[in-house]
Amino acid sequence: MSKTDPGNYFEDFRLGQVIVHATPRTITAGDVALYTALYGPRFALFSSDVFARDCGLETAPVDPLVAFHVVFGKTVPDISLNAVANLGYAEGRFLAPVHVGDTLSARSEVIGLKENANGKTGVVYVRTTGVNQRGVAVLSYVRWVMVRKRDPAAKVEASSVPQLADAVAAGDLTPPPGLDFKRYDFAHAGAPHAYEDYAIGEKIDHVDGMVVEEAEAQMATRLWQNTAKVHFNQFERAKDPSGRRLVYGGVVISTAKALSFNGLQNTGLILAINGGRHVSPYFAGGTVFAWSQVLDKAELSPTVGALRLRLVATVDRPCADFPDKDEAGAYAPGVILDFDHWAAVPKRG
Amino acid sequence: MSKTDPGNYFEDFRLGQVIVHATPRTITAGDVALYTALYGPRFALFSSDVFARDCGLETAPVDPLVAFHVVFGKTVPDISLNAVANLGYAEGRFLAPVHVGDTLSARSEVIGLKENANGKTGVVYVRTTGVNQRGVAVLSYVRWVMVRKRDPAAKVEASSVPQLADAVAAGDLTPPPGLDFKRYDFAHAGAPHAYEDYAIGEKIDHVDGMVVEEAEAQMATRLWQNTAKVHFNQFERAKDPSGRRLVYGGVVISTAKALSFNGLQNTGLILAINGGRHVSPYFAGGTVFAWSQVLDKAELSPTVGALRLRLVATVDRPCADFPDKDEAGAYAPGVILDFDHWAAVPKRG
Amino acid sequence: MSKTDPGNYFEDFRLGQVIVHATPRTITAGDVALYTALYGPRFALFSSDVFARDCGLETAPVDPLVAFHVVFGKTVPDISLNAVANLGYAEGRFLAPVHVGDTLSARSEVIGLKENANGKTGVVYVRTTGVNQRGVAVLSYVRWVMVRKRDPAAKVEASSVPQLADAVAAGDLTPPPGLDFKRYDFAHAGAPHAYEDYAIGEKIDHVDGMVVEEAEAQMATRLWQNTAKVHFNQFERAKDPSGRRLVYGGVVISTAKALSFNGLQNTGLILAINGGRHVSPYFAGGTVFAWSQVLDKAELSPTVGALRLRLVATVDRPCADFPDKDEAGAYAPGVILDFDHWAAVPKRG
Predict the structure, then answer these.
(1) Is some CB atom of chain B closer than 8 A to the CB atom of A340?
(2) Nearest alpha carbon to residue A120 among A94, A157, A79, A154
(3) Nearest chain A CA: its distance from B328 CA (Å)
(4) Contact state of B227 with A40 under an 8 Å Cβ cutoff
(5) C 280-309 residues with CB below 8 A of A?
(6) Are residues A115 and A240 located together in one domain of the fold?
(7) Is some CB atom of chain B closer than 8 A to the CB atom of C105?
(8) Is residue A132 situated within a structural domain?
(9) E runs forming strands in chain A
(10) Contacts 24+ apart (CB under 8 A), B317-321
């Protein structure tokens, strides 16, 4: 038996199969500093222990996207090493806050399989759960990817596509225990805008643009122990029509979320990922821009509200005119990400 | 009201106005490691808890330039988002040491305003103070920047230019409480040179050269949550005659200070910034060189002295012949920084 | 006397001379996070405190290569600032585990000197020891480098070349006190392969390829406070036939070791460096590949075994056919590293 891991091919997956992913990871202050250096987030809740205590937490929690990247990275060798494309996310819920010192591990259950008509690939649906050192689930999400078959002639189970919710219900959102925005310091947070100031349908251009360099993309990907070959192996990528390494899609999500500070300064704390699509690949060196739309609102407590936000990112394309998809679902040129999530926001009370 | 922050224009500032800056920041061991990785400093006091204890401190303090970058970064969205140029620094004093775990926040007072004759821009003078979680000021400095007017026709207050000291007086220097160089370990520090060995007027070529890559410059800038567009938005910068992103001036300061280890091995602890000027912009990829001159000396305690040092940095220009400004004040080609500061140094006793 | 350190030239070294190196260094969680971001290692023992406790350790130890880089970096200004080439390593032993919070310092003893026939250079052999804050040696290794003479006419001591062991004897390996793989979690470690599954002579292609960018190479080198000019001074390197900065050889070692996870998932803990040779320089941008061969096996305890591994790295050259040296000792094109080490591995018991 070869000791080198070839990854799983489509015919290797079984419905109901549970995969324990490798390399549990203790989150450190070093990871948090690198997250700041790589993406430039400015949300006060993750930046200051003092600010976090004023919000009812013991110390600054780790940005939920850090937990997402750590858990996602662990799944790559088992789920998407032979993937053609990462197709989407759904039903992502952040279930418990993560702090420096917590150790995360991950497992996935195969919840759907559908062979493509060409017989060469199929779509694998997994529900992945990240668990901390006390066995508490900290996040859970569904992802589906198109995976190559090793052998086009291989027999494959009858197809089964899971029913997935369009969005996490507001009633299922789980803000960190103790979270209370009564003493929220709007001046230190950077803007006075509260829950009450955002209207459903409102669009916000985040104005700023940010380049990600190749070295930054690689460091961000290695940090999460994500091993997908397309991000690192230039020798092999030279044979691709693009000739370029692909940037890990999570880099685009985190960069766009950091850019969204300008206009959504008080919505850093992501509570759920309703859906996400990497509309086009991003290559290092392009300038990322972003805009958001408020899709929905919900009250979670007397001081905490939630906004359902659609965050759209583009490359080399400012967003003053909110580039979007047309009625047929085709995206405007330059759009690279469409990311639907819930985030906590202080109520003015 | 738009929720996107357009930054302040010259006519938005008022004399005496106090601005509380966003995003308090807890300094971590991750920030310190990144500082080392990005600039390469080797001063033992910041590198080793054991060395720091032998100098009378509880643990290794954070390099004062880290505190400076953190505080400076916070001011950018409010003070210099619409700046044409960062003109200078003065009266910078490091008032209390910063350790890992401290949370810094920043506020600025507008202490001077002077419209330029063209009516399109003006100079804003601010005194910025960084404060820790106990409300103790850890540093204070004056900065002046040239800022665009939103509306050239806007009326502007009568001009007021503050009187600024040429240098911080030696009597106003505040080394960390407890600092005592009696047991200073010169071998571990890397050189035997003490206060007594440096003569006023002495020039030192630091010999080594160091490239800063674009990715490094961006990471260094994001780490300090400095959002100035010129550092990140290549799409917009492509329209500039340079076609390039500008590197944050603080990167040049920290790189030059790190290079100065070679010849000034025992002067890492900056106590004051007397003045600083970014003579020319620095673009990533150039090799930075540096030289220093001893401008003054002062005894602070039986074991601690201070050197007033002028640190000059160049790009693609070795400094064996100490490139300088001429009598008319014009700098030699290649000079990018002229940075006048006080630093602590052990006395041989 | 100039205060700028010119480094030592060949005629400056004396047999038996002991050099205390500058800049003791407290290892932090930030260093560990950067190590992960720069190389992408996935060995569970260094990644998870929980996993490490299950292996009998209090917390996750620092990867021994971190300790090696820290100690190596300190020696550069004294030993190899004027080196023409880093010729080899031998008798490297990791003597005690290093944890976050430990402070390492380094000293070297000159154990061999041999002038070259051309009279312009000579080979210096040093045994370097890294010591923690309790005075306990954590690692020791021999390195030899070719160093320029300042003055070709300088008289030099009679030559003395030390006898060096081909490999560290299995009986001299010192795994961390308490290390016990009885509860080793193979699922979380990423592969089921135990001591019993590896055969002497077995070759493993690690398949994956990894680019190191210039910014990454520089950050990795600065992080260890390694100042060798060839890594940073592009202005000077432009005069070299390559026109390029050289990447620090330790970057190649750590990158190759991280790649070796794919096939050697349970052998992360290096116990000894038997020998190492940087066969060719590596320049940033090339894709690194690696393969390994099992040279020897040894039982250290009822649950802990050791594998003697030869790790060969190439650039832009996949390793499915195990590119090697021929009988005359000439390496196949593309080979850049040949690194012989002992690593701990769990026994199935």
Answers:
(1) no
(2) A154
(3) 40
(4) yes
(5) 285, 287, 289
(6) no
(7) yes
(8) yes
(9) 18-20, 25-26, 83-94, 103-115, 121-131, 137-148, 203-205, 210-211, 270-278, 287-299, 304-315, 335-346
(10) B317/B289, B318/B205, B318/B207, B318/B209, B318/B289, B318/C235, B319/B205, B319/B206, B319/B207, B319/B289, B319/B290, B319/B291, B320/B205, B320/B207
- Scanning C197-216 for CB atoms below 8 A from B yields 213-216
State which amino acid sits at residue B244.
Answer: R
The ipTM assigned to this model is 0.96
pLDDT tens string B265-313? 999 999 999 999 999 999 999 999 999 999 999 999 999 999 999 999 9
- My answer on whether C220 and C287 are in the same domain is yes
| Residues facing A92 on adjacent strands | A273
A18 lies within 8 A of chain C by CB: no
To the nearest whole Å, the CA of B124 is away from the closest chain A CA by 21
Counted domains in chain C: 2
C232 Cβ under 8 Å from any chain B Cβ:
yes
The whole-angstrom separation of Cα A252 and Cα A211 is: 10
Instruction: Indicate whether C122 and C218 sit together in one domain.
Output: no
Q: Is residue C170 part of a domain?
A: no
Interface test with C, best of A18, A23, A212 (most C CBs within 10 A): A23
Range of the domain at B230: 10-149+166-346
Residue A41 lies in a domain: no
The verdict on residue C319 lying in a domain is yes
Residues with Cβ within 8 Å of residue A101, at least 6 apart in sequence: A26, A27, A28, C49
Neighbours of B (≥3 Cβ pairs closer than 8 A)? A, C
Given CB atoms, is A23 within the 8 Å cutoff of chain C?
yes
Among residues C89, C124, C152, the one where a domain terminates is C152
Contact B208 C233 (CB under 8 A): yes
Instruction: Based on the fold, state whether residues C217 and C267 are members of the same structural domain.
Output: yes
pLDDT in tens, chain A (349 residues): 589 988 899 999 999 999 999 999 999 999 999 999 999 999 999 999 999 999 999 999 999 999 999 999 999 999 998 888 888 999 999 999 999 999 999 999 999 999 999 889 999 999 999 999 999 999 999 999 999 999 989 888 778 999 999 999 999 999 999 999 999 999 999 999 999 999 999 999 999 999 999 999 999 999 999 988 899 999 999 999 999 999 999 999 999 999 999 999 999 999 999 999 999 999 999 999 999 999 999 999 999 999 999 999 999 999 999 999 999 999 999 999 999 999 999 999 6
Which residues in chain C touch residue A103, judged by CB atoms under 8 angstroms apart?
Answer: 48-51
Say if the Cβ atoms of C34 and A29 lie within 8 Å. Answer: no
Q: Which residue has the tokens 């600032």?
A: C81
C189–A22: do the CB atoms touch at under 8 Å?
A: yes
